[in-house]
Q: What sequence folds into this?
């Protein structure tokens, strides 16, 4: 008997752009993830320089038996909260806040858990005036050499420097229908072809889906989602992310600091391939 279309792997049924559009506004967001995963969270605020950025939430947390520092971009769940959270687009003080919490984790030898879900760093004039590019670059430098395990999970959108500024890790997991890209398909099409309507072609060429990124060595693990996407069964996704985080925390915690840093360095040095 032939397999019905809905029984085939989603990668065979939907085009890349259709999978991106399936990223529902009802998908689990950081606030939901952390409430379902952790047993206790002590949220910390501010960058000790300018102010607090509501687009990022972070603090000291316990996930099962794993004590850690968790950080993540928060988009909000309705109009009011999305405006307050700036739709998950961080200002420089958000990246500095993330760095402060990561250095705190290093001080107390706690693993870092970074949950990524952003359409990019905030592109406004005020963000550039306060050193957006420098803040992202500083995070890349610190995350490359921070002396504690870093676990990264892409739970939705992972766009541009907004994701990369919190995305350097020893292990990177990614939800099955999340995406990770230097630019959105519409932005790419506008630059290359001066036509945002060519986003279908751009999405295909960007290789931004989980299976593409796994084959290129950008991510390490694909976390399964329920049929139709994470919003159809959030509890399934919470369990997948929680199991991944706790398992990797125990594995990475058994590795010496020097070897951990060396493996992290090699991991990112090996990224990048010429493909036809």
A:
């Amino acid at each position: 008997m032939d397999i019905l279309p809905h029984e085939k792997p989603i990668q065979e049924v939907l085009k890349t752009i259709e999978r991106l559009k399936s990223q529902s506004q009802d998908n689990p967001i950081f606030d939901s993830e952390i409430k379902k995963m952790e047993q206790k969270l002590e949220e910390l605020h501010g960058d000790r320089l300018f102010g607090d950025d509501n687009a990022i939430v972070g603090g000291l947390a316990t996930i099962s038996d794993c004590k850690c520092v968790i950080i993540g971009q928060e988009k909000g769940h309705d109009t009011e909260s999305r405006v307050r959270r700036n739709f998950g687009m961080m200002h420089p003080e958000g990246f500095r806040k993330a760095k402060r919490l990561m250095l705190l984790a290093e001080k107390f030898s706690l693993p870092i858990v970074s949950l990524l879900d952003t359409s990019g760093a905030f592109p406004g004039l005020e963000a550039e005036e306060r050193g957006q590019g420098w803040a992202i670059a500083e995070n890349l430098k610190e995350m490359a050499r921070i002396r504690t395990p870093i676990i990264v999970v892409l739970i939705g959108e992972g766009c541009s420097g907004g994701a990369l500024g919190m995305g350097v890790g020893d292990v990177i997991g990614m939800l099955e229908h999340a995406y990770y890209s230097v630019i959105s398909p519409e932005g790419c099409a506008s630059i290359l072809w001066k036509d945002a309507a060519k986003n279908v072609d751009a999405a295909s060429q960007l290789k931004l889906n989980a299976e593409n990124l796994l084959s290129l060595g950008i991510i390490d693990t694909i976390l399964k989602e329920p049929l139709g996407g994470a919003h159809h069964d959030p509890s399934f996704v919470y369990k997948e992310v929680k199991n991944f985080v706790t398992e990797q925390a125990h594995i990475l915690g058994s590795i010496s600091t020097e070897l951990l840093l060396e493996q992290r360095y090699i991991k990112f040095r090996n990224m990048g391939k010429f493909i036809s």
